[in-house]
Write a structure and sequence with these properties.
Chain lengths: 89, 89, 89, 89
């Protein structure tokens, strides 16, 4: 799984390198914006996937564990990450 | 807490009624859009707050409970809700 | 068109009233969040529609007009509205 | 200006390369997600900047020009780009 995320990040990296070239070659602004949006969408999918893994490992361990502070920390992080994506507008 | 969310939703409801009036009275488009964005921001804060409550009640109960299917269901929902807000672009 | 936006806003208003009731009747948190997300999606479609109208009326008039300050103002607003929706994360 | 966007994209590229390393070195999931969100925020700022340039050049030229089809095309693109960022939920 780790390998998969690493690979997908490398693809986004290549994608962004391509966008740099587009900018240097004076590509049409809207085409550049579309490519940036596509790269952002790919990043969103990767972070959703990583969150999924996190929920099914660390979060379960922390919540089933005996440390209430650890539990609170882990849940607070989920909340923070959600709030950040949610805070458009 | 329930009362608080209910009240905040009522405020958003009133806000949207005000936006309806703006549209009927031919307000400037950009002003209407700004008000819609403000209403959406208020809704985002409400849903973040509700998620927070949910994490600190149902999610803890389900994960500490003995039913793996229930656990999976609850974590799947968190993932789904995150993915939905995350799926811009 | 104005009538159409007004009607769609009224539907969202009714939708939010329904969500208030859900909260008062202790509906499941995730179901409430899903309904809030649906209301936000409806609002996004309305504001996209309003922007479309705006682009095809005020923006064209301003840009074809002779007042550079007015032109700048109108383009600045488009930029502002875009930036606001774009500023997630 | 072109140089500026190119440079900022290169920074994002480096940022993503750093995130790849984090994943390979088994960094904490939430830290990875936070970095991905930061990279997305940087991309949002870049695309807002590019849109701004576009509004102040191509869009003005097209709208002041004599070709209604061209005008429509350019405005349709603004709408499309706005709708894409706006279509969260």
């Amino acid at each position: 799984m780790k390998k998969d995320f690493s690979l997908r990040l490398r693809n986004v990296e290549g994608h962004i390198r391509g966008i740099e070239r587009m900018v240097e070659e004076d590509a049409y602004c809207i085409d550049v914006i579309r490519q940036i949006q596509a790269a952002q969408a790919a990043l969103s999918k990767i972070s959703s996937g990583i969150l999924d893994e996190h929920l099914n490992s660390c979060v379960i361990t922390a919540i089933r564990g005996d440390d209430p502070a650890e539990r609170e920390r882990v849940l607070g992080e989920i909340h923070e990450v959600f709030e950040k994506t949610n805070r458009s507008y």
